[in-house]
Amino acid sequence: MGNGHKAFEIKLRGALLRRPGRSALRRGAAALLLGGAWAFCLPEPLFDPPLSVVLLDRRGELLGAQLAGDGQWRFPAAPAVPEKYKRALVTFEDKRFFRHPGVDPLALARSLYLNYLRKKVVSGGSTISMQVIRLARKNPPRTYPQKLIEILMTLRLEWRYSKDEIISLYAANAPFGGNVIGLEGAAWRYYGRSPELLSWSESALLAVLPNSPALIHPGRNREELRRKRDALLRKLNAAGALDDLSMRLAMREPLPGRPHPLPRAAPHLLDTLSAGRPRALEHRLRTTLDAPLQRAMQAMVGRYSDTMALHGVRNAAVIVVDNRTFEVKAYVGNSRDLAGAPGDRSSSGYGIDLIRRPRSTGSILKPLLFAAMIQSGELLSTTLVPDLPTQYGNFMPQNFDRKYRGAVPARAALAQSLNVPAVRMLKAYGAPRFYDFLRGLGLSTLHRDPEGYGLSLILGGAEGTLWDLARIYANLARLARGGLGKDGPRLRPLLLTSAPAEPETPSAVGTGAAWLTMKALLDVTRPGEEGYWENFDSSRRIAWKTGTSYGHRDAWAIGSDASHTVGVWLGNADGEGRPELVGVTAAAPLLFQVFNHLPHGGWFDTPEVHLKEVELCRNDGYLPFGNCVTERQWAPLESNFDRASPYNKTVHLDAAGRWRVHGKCEAVSRMKHQTWFSLPPGQEYFYRRYYPGYKPIPAYRRDCEAGADRKKGPVEFLYPGAESRIYIPMDLAEKKGRVVFEAAHTRQDAALFWHLDGNYLGRTTVFHQQALDIEPGAHELTVVDQDGNYATRRFEILGRT
After folding, report:
1. Tens digits of per-residue pLDDT, 115-152?
2. Which pTM was predicted?
3. Catalytic center residues
4. What are 435-441's contacts with CB under 8 Å, separation 24+?
5. Number of Cβ within a 10 Å radius of residue 616
6. Are the beta carbons of 640 and 682 closer than 8 angstroms?
7. By the 8 A CB rule, do 622 and 643 touch?
8. Residue 456, SS3?
9. Per DSSP, what are the bridge partners of residue 386?
């Protein structure tokens, strides 16, 4: 309570007990001492108890609250008290409150008279202001010296505070029965709504309750509580506060029953914001959340999680961001509230805020690599990226369907979430460079150095939070809308509370690259097209991406339109993997349920001022070489894409266009020169399975074979890579395994002849694979076709693992 008022009490008691001084000097000194004590008698602050942390939405609606440190429901003082309650309180406790200086002489005289008649203290004559002082002093014994101290402190209280402020102090600190302190907590606990929405009957009951707070408990003398309430309603009627009909209806309202549970619309956010919050900070936390949307999202996630729980998936999280203001509109940190979770709550992780918990990112970072390479001019949306068996050291990525397409446009690789092209793109871009790019975007969970992640960074080797990823994708959406600051593209922080926002930071991605990335994500296959979704409004245009972590531990889905970004995570908080945890089948349906609930947000206008048209070969997405068929594609205005087509080659054919020829076997005047789209053998082998219209370069005419340039023949190794260092695998029985080598030929009917270190091994057709038992050391493997085309690969066997 502070030392000021305690010192004042000591000095006042001393002054009362000492005999009056004889000298004027002593009387003056005493008066000066008492005056100084009176001036500083109120503690600062007047009340300093532990308070509940209260969470509000953007309109001030209650989302949740926590018990104060002493186990009480004690809300921080509200800036104003509702008029109904104020009128009821003044009528019941202190009808001359607005006319007296804190002490009511008439009430005090009446109290003294009654106490004299009864020979005991039956009435204190306390005003509302005096009751505030009693509450601040923690209800000291009712004695005449204490009453005098109370009177003097009350006068000082009235000097410092306005009448409305004094009523607010009373309403925030009066006892309302049980562990409820203050009007706001009482309104929510007994009536389940805010004080502003209380009726006359409810306001009257709460006005009389602090006088006898024990009457609120069921089983006590509830009729006495009703009698007090109704007597106050009659006084309010007599004073003209409510008419006769309203009074009779108010008297018919029932008394409150069992206490209501307080709202728990965002319990995990409440825990996150209050954890580690210094006690001196604001206890009334006003957020950007929209209460109706928050409740709808909480219910939606709960229903969806009930279904997923049948498959052993217990936890989920959803965040909704307004792309225009960057305000978080919904924040569901887990599938259930810990307080209401069934079963073994300790092992289900229901109490964890999974929006802030780092989890393996799966494929959710692939669009960011696409944006980085578009921005830097290293590829465009239609540029072909190899998709064939790939190995870098001990790292051998595979596509989710375990198939290869030979070569795919970059935007198709992104839309289909192909792993092999993504790893090859990262290899070309550079993992350390992409690491720095991600940190610049705001991915705060990269705690190792770039070498610690390597190429697995793009496939879930790193961890991220739904909070960071929602911010990154919301910024991509904002940039795609042309949201540039005066200093160029900037990244904005998410806004959640009234606390000062983090500063904006420069963005390495401009509007052009962001828009092209969103456009590519528009082509992602929706879960409904694979039989997993039925009710999505297909007319809505949404850029979205899913992710699945290694071991099926995390399923992600993030989507954006022009107005909103929605982030979804599903999994188990303890990291348990489940086969059902696949992004497109587990997280994407919930993503589209959320978008179905949101208003249509529209799509991004083409930001032509930030784009330029580039003429590219239609079949490979590179700058034209020869006479390839071209098309015009968008590129960022600042992009410097300068890569000529490596796949379109000038081929010399005979006059009929059937056979390939050259100057040693055919006159130049009789040649037909044609630009031919031709992939390397390894890519071609897989490409033609997906694209039956692909035509390999014609073979040389028989009389031209001798002089043909065969530097790049039709045969190519798929495995091993150049100068590979290989460990021999061991099988489950601890027996030595074999290394499987694989090659490809442009002709499906070709036969390959295999040689290891000059020794013939055998012949393969159609599927060119050899499983070999090889001793450690350096080796050379050669394959030759029936036409003499060959390929050689040197490698080293290091041992067994």
Report:
1. 656 555 545 568 999 999 999 988 877 777 787 888 88
2. 0.83
3. 93, 363
4. 437/368, 437/372, 437/508, 438/365, 438/368, 438/462, 440/505, 440/506, 440/507, 440/508, 441/368, 441/472, 441/475, 441/491, 441/507, 441/508, 441/509
5. 24
6. no
7. yes
8. helix
9. 407
Q: Give the residue from 336, 346, 348 showing the smallest Cα distance to 312.
A: 348
Pairing of strands 180-181, 73-74: parallel
Per-residue pLDDT at 347? 54
Longest dimension (CA), the chain: 141
C-alpha to C-alpha distance for 592 and 413, rounded to whole angstroms: 22
pLDDT at 343: 43
Give the end-to-end CA distance of the chain in Å, rounded to a whole number. Answer: 72
Q: Which helix (H) or strand (E) holds 753?
A: strand 751-756
Encode burial over 254-268: b for 16+ CB neighbours within 10 A, e otherwise: ebbeebeebbbbbbb
d(CA 93, CA 88): 8
Indicate the Cα dihedral angle 646, 647, 653, 657, nearest 10°: -150
C-alpha to C-alpha distance for 282 and 298, rounded to whole angstroms: 26
- Contact between 510 and 636 under an 8 Å Cβ cutoff? The reply is yes
691-743 pLDDT, tens per residue?
A: 888 998 898 888 887 766 655 678 899 888 877 888 876 654 455 678 889 99
- In a 10 Å sphere around its CB, with 0-12 CB exposed, 13-18 middle and 19+ buried, how is residue 139 labelled? exposed
Half-sphere exposure of 487 (CA within 13 A, CB side): 7
Query: Do residues 183 and 176 lie in contact, with contact meaning Cβ atoms separated by under 8 Å?
Result: yes
CA atoms within 13 A on the CB side of 31: 7
- How big, in percent rounded to 5, are the helix, strand and coil portions of the chain? 35, 20, 45
* CB within 8 Å of 581: residues ≥ 6 apart: 313, 548, 549, 552, 553, 554, 555, 570, 571
Of the candidates 138, 127, 177, 126, the residue with the CA atom closest to the CA atom of residue 47: 138
- Give CA–CA dist 280/783, Å, rounded: 76
- What would the two tokens of residue 609 be? 């001022």
Q: What token pair was written down for 661? A: 């020829």
How far apart are alpha carbons 363 and 417 in whole angstroms?
7
Q: Residue 482, exposed/middle/buried by CB under 10 A (0-12, 13-18, 19+)?
A: middle
Q: Model confidence at 801, in pLDDT bands (50, 70, 90)? A: low
The backbone region for 170, taken as left when phi is positive above 0, alpha when psi lies in -120 to 50, beta otherwise, is: alpha
* Among 188, 154, 160, residue whose Cα is nearest residue 78: 188
- The beta strand positions in 608-647, using DSSP E, are 611-617, 630-636
Query: Does the pLDDT of residue 3 top 60, yes or no?
Result: no
Q: Of the candidates 174, 133, 170, which has an alpha carbon nearest to the alpha carbon of residue 151?
A: 133
194 CB-side CA count, 13 A: 15
Nearest to 64 by CA among 326, 274, 293, 258: 274
CA-wise closest residue to 78 among 204, 199, 170, 208: 170
Please, which pLDDT band fits residue 111 given cuts at 50, 70 and 90? low
More reliable by pLDDT, 195 or 109: 195
Measure Cα distances from 145 to 41, 104, 109, 381, 561 in Å: 15, 18, 16, 86, 71
Query: Measured between alpha carbons, how far is residue 164 from residues 90, 128, 543, 551, 574 in Å?
Result: 11, 11, 53, 62, 52
> What is the token pair recorded at 166?
């004094």
457-479 as b/e: b if 16+ CB within 10 A: bbbbbbbbbbbbbbbbbbbbbbb
Q: What is the mean pLDDT of the chain?
A: 87
Query: Angle, nearest 10°, between helix axes 366-376 and 511-521?
Result: 140
In degrees, rounded to 5, the angle at the alpha carbon of residue 726 between the alpha carbons of residues 722 and 731 is 145
Residue 108 or residue 177, greater confidence = 177
User: Please, what is the angle between helix 83-93 and helix 222-238, to 10°?
Assistant: 100
